[in-house]
Amino acid sequence: MQQWLVKRMLAVRATGSCTSVSLRRDLLKHHGIEVDPCTVRRVLQNAGYEWLPRAQKPRHTADVKRQRKDFANDIVAMTPRQVKAKLALCMDGVVLTMPPADTIARENFCLGGETHTWRQRDEHSLPALAACDKYRKQVPENRAVPLWGGVAAGGFSIIVFHDRRKLTAEEWAEGVEAGKLRSAIQRLSPARQNGPWTVLCDNEAFLRAPASAAAHRADDIHLLKIPPKSPDLNPVELYWSWLRRALLAKDLEDLKQGRPTLGKTAFKARVRAICASAKAKRVACACVNNLHKVCKEVLRLKGAATRF
Q1: DSSP string covering 34-49, please?
Q2: Which of 128, 135, 276, 281 would give a disulfide with 14, using CB separation of 3.0 to 4.6 Å?
Q3: DSSP assignment of 103-164, as one string?
Q4: Gap between the Cα atoms of 87 and 285, Å rounded
């Protein structure tokens, strides 16, 4: 049985979701043996496998490496305190996903089988285990909850929930003109109620559009863009990882307690509640503090990607 579980795991993990629950079902289906998921986990752990992210570190061109080193040098030239003072907000968008109502699909979703898999620690560079998040990218609109937010030394703040996965330049400019970005900054920096403010962000096209640029200028907001394909250089990405884990823990608790899946309004309320917690504030602050350390690692690796 133990040998079969390891062999089955090695075959399945390269093609899609591979969790202790799915392996338990396969064992029952193919051999009529029923065991607890914890037994499956113990067998795999004893064989040297751990439940770890599938993602590989991205590879960068020489030009992107140079841009990453330039960015890292600018950050490292400042003290961590100066970095926190300079960056009024580190922002980005994320698409959160509500669990499906179907019991089996919901169970697989809560176990995070698309983003994690069973692997050994030195297998992070295997092509077969490259980052795989097809399930969440293909999730229907009625289960997708997109939002933009940001972290700063004062915590995390939601800028806007939106309906479609991607904001348009017009939608973003209208939000900025309505004071949503300014308010997010002010909530996290009570002592800095007026600009100029520097906001760290990625290279989304709608942020560079003329309408968006005009709205930023009106609020005295200056964008500091990270190099391309460099999520490790935006502290809010760490926060999104934590938020997803916190939401999944709640989803799994709902599943275990037999509670129905949340509607979109209730799910947004849960997101707001988690983000308003004292723990969320500590996590956000730690994410910002980590930028200095990440930039030092980028310089040590000569511009290569880090495991942020």
Answers
A1: ---HHHHHHHHHHTT-
A2: 128
A3: HHHHHHHHTTTTTEEEE-GGGTT-GGGS---HHHHT--GGGEEEEEEEEETTEEEEEEE-SS
A4: 12
- The structure tokens listed for 290 are 């980590």
pLDDT tens digit sequence for 92-109 = 999 999 998 888 778 877
Angle in degrees, 0-180, between the axes of helices 37-46 and 20-31, rounded to the nearest 10: 100
User: Partners of 52 in the beta sheet?
Assistant: 117
Strand partners, 51: 118
Q: Is 285 helix (H, G, I), strand (E, B) or coil?
A: helix
Phi and psi at residue 160, to the nearest 5°? -160, 140
Q: What is the pLDDT of residues 151-193, one digit of tens each?
A: 999 999 999 999 888 899 999 999 999 999 999 999 998 778 8
Please provide residue 156's backbone torsions phi and psi, each rounded to the nearest 5 degrees.
-125, 145
User: Residues with Cβ < 8 Å from 267, sequence gap 6 or more?
Assistant: 96, 98, 145
Position 77, amino acid: A
Q: Kindly report whether the peptide bond that precedes residue 260 is cis, defined as omega within 30 degrees of 0.
A: no
Identify the DSSP state of 77: T
CB-based contact 141:277 (threshold 8 Å):
no
